[in-house]
Design goal:
The structure is a single chain. This protein has 183 residues and is an alpha/beta fold. 39% of the residues lie in helices and 21% in strands. It has one domain (3-182): Ribonuclease H-like superfamily/Ribonuclease H (Nucleotidyltransferase, domain 5, 2-Layer Sandwich). The protein has six helices and six strands. It has a six-stranded mixed sheet. α3 packs across α4 and α5 (129-137) runs parallel beside α6 (163-182). The longest helix has 20 residues, at 163-182. It starts with a strand and ends with a helix. This is Exonuclease.
Length: 183
């Protein structure tokens, strides 16, 4: 069974789950050939007792359109994460979590999956686009930022801080890198 790359982006109101909430999740499922097979997105209600981190709230104040997008049509986390697992299981292929940076996005997704569903279809693994870029560019990790990546890796897609938009954009980036790495 081939791998299916699930590019995922989350929007949150703080740096860690629990004291802070995941506000939105967007995932775009790609084949290695860069076929966008399916997408998933939802906005979540905040966790009981959680509060926005002051620095994150300050940043959100500069992003009114993205904030409005992640606060409409809210869903309870338990329901949202169950639907997410069902969506992943409906895909043909072995799911691979892909993100930029995976350390942040996977932290929230994994915590929410374990807390609200009791399992993760990704096991304990996530593929970090920045680490992959470091290997491809033969550079230091801190030099492997998007501004230092070749323009040919990027499709003209928006990075709007709306989770699904960013997941699609970063999934295309990953697929372009994967194709170049394999050729």
């Amino acid at each position: 069974m081939p791998e299916i790359y699930i590019s995922t982006d989350v929007e949150t109101d703080g740096p860690i789950p629990g004291p802070h909430s995941m506000l939105s999740i967007g995932s775009a499922a790609y084949t290695a050939e860069k076929v966008l097979v399916s997408t998933f997105s939802t906005n979540l209600e905040t966790l009981p007792g959680a509060e926005a981190h002051p620095k994150t709230a300050e940043w959100w104040a500069t992003q009114p359109e993205a904030w409005a997008a992640c606060r409409k049509d809210l869903e309870q986390p338990q329901q949202a994460m169950r639907r997410y697992v069902e969506w992943i299981r409906s895909l043909e292929g072995k799911p691979v979590f892909v993100a930029y940076p995976a350390g942040f996005d996977f932290l929230f997704v994994y915590w929410y999956l374990i807390r609200f569903v009791g399992e993760s279809p990704f096991s304990h693994s996530a593929l970090d686009i920045k680490s992959f870029a470091m290997a491809m560019l033969k550079s230091d990790y801190r030099q492997s930022t998007k501004r230092n990546m070749p323009k040919r890796w990027f499709d003209p897609l928006p990075h709007s801080h709306v989770a699904l938009d960013d997941a699609i954009e970063q999934g295309a980036l990953f697929c372009n890198m994967l194709k170049e790495n394999r050729s």
